[in-house]
Amino acid sequence: MSEPAKLHRCSYTFLHTELDACWKVEKALKEEGIPYEVVKHGYGKSDKSRAEVIELSGQKLLPVLELPGGEVYRADSGEMAARVRSGDLGRDAA
Length: 94
Ligand SMILES: N[C@@H](CCC(=O)N[C@@H](CS)C(=O)NCC(=O)O)C(=O)O
Prior knowledge:
- The chain has 94 residues and is of the alpha+beta class.
- It has a single domain, classed as Glutaredoxin, CATH 3.40.30.
- 31% of the residues lie in helices and 18% in strands.
- A 4-stranded mixed sheet has the order 2-1-3-4, sandwiched between helices.
- α1 links the parallel β1 and β2.
- α1 runs parallel beside α3.
- Glutathione binds at residues 10, 20-22, 45, 60-62, 76-77.
């Protein structure tokens, strides 16, 4: 991948626990050495506070990955982390 992926994540960046969905995916990116940049979004349950996330991905939960090829990828964080670790971020999810 030439350009970095964008990890859209919540602003609770100090939480380094697998219970945090955003950290779960960020940890996988770090451990796999995949270049990424973080785009932080506020933490909130309202559609208003996540308007940009909804516009990008069609739903409001984070994390969301914006991949270099243009794919916007959101799934359960466990599934996202598994795909990161599988090395197939450059391809569309099956
Ligand atoms: N089960 C989902 C949970 C995702 C989740 O709750 N993400 C948090 C950020 S770490 C969020 O967007 N919370 C806002 C909300 O619940 O409305 C996953 O693992 O992906």
